[in-house]
Specification:
With 137 residues, the protein is of the alpha+beta class. It is 39% helix and 26% strand.
Length: 137
């Protein structure tokens, strides 16, 4: 076999290998983007930002999360973490977001597969709860 033919064969195999790697990478990226993982991570980040905002607002206030959260369980952990998960999620599939509160503030609450989520600030307490019908008209 001459050198020219072998170099063409090597080049064809290299192109096929690159196409295979690119195809696999796209399939993984599409699968990851369509999964609930991104939604859970974004929801945990949103709620963390909402808690930080509530701390800085003077007085009592109620904020409604603008999306349907009925597929998720959301809770404030005692270690000042927001945990977003589905019912049978393993700890590796849960989204966790650390948030920081001033020393005299506390956060509590659990929301299990309810449609609407509200964060309420009462004095120095942040409460995660289901919204009433009047709160999200």
């Amino acid at each position: 076999m001459n050198k020219k033919a072998s170099s063409v064969l090597v080049m064809i195999f290299e192109v096929l290998a690159v196409l295979l790697i690119v195809t696999i990478a796209f399939k993984i990226a599409i699968g990851y983007a369509n999964s609930d993982t991104i939604t859970k991570i974004n929801m945990a980040k949103d709620l963390g930002l909402m808690v930080n905002t509530l701390v800085s607002v003077p007085g009592d206030v109620v904020v409604t999360y603008p999306y349907n959260v009925s597929a998720y369980i959301i809770l404030f952990d005692k270690n000042q973490e927001i945990i977003v998960m589905k019912k049978n999620d393993t700890p590796q599939n849960q989204a966790r977001k650390k948030f920081y509160l001033p020393t005299h503030y506390s956060a509590s609450g659990v929301l299990e597969e309810k449609e609407r989520l509200c964060l309420e600030k009462r004095s120095t307490e942040i409460i995660l709860r289901e919204c009433s019908k009047e709160e999200f008209k």
